[in-house]
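Appendix C reproduces, verbatim, an entry submitted by the partner laboratory led by Prof. M.T., so that reviewers can inspect both the input and the predicted structure.
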Amino acid sequence: MKKLLFLLLISTSAIAQISLPVPLNIQSTYDKGTRSTDGKPGKNYWQNSADYTININYNPDTRLLTGTEEIDYINNSADVLHEIVFKLYPNIYKKGNIRDLAVEATDLTDGVTIQSISLNGNNSSFNIKGTNMIVPYTMVQPKQKIHFNIKYHYCPTKLQIKGQF
């Protein structure tokens, strides 16, 4: 009798379990097939990709870092891209930029200077806003590969935050 009562108690508590609501943004990933319910990527999941060749020179006396990059970027999405955004993290310390941490005036820099950028062999325009460098492009089609050549320089801050020197 005690076993039956125990089993009855366990079974009613299992039935009484309520399922939690699924947030709409999570449900939409299930519907699109970009995520499965176990959290793994779904059949429609994709990531854009890039291959980099980076050459840098650093002068410890002047603290000047100069570099060139060649980047092959592939749009693996189903969307047409109208711009590519590069992150210029050293610009966190650029004079006049907004940041969410206090920085001494002696730790501020002039930020990253882009000397030139070309896209598929042609000079390209760009716009820098804070730590974002936005490169407009008329249309990067799905599965299209584009090539960037970038020449830049900057002086890293002496302040060590988040692993940067």
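The beta strands are 49-59, 64-74, 81-87, 113-119, 122-123, 127-129, 132-140, 145-154. Additional entries are available on request from the coordinating office.
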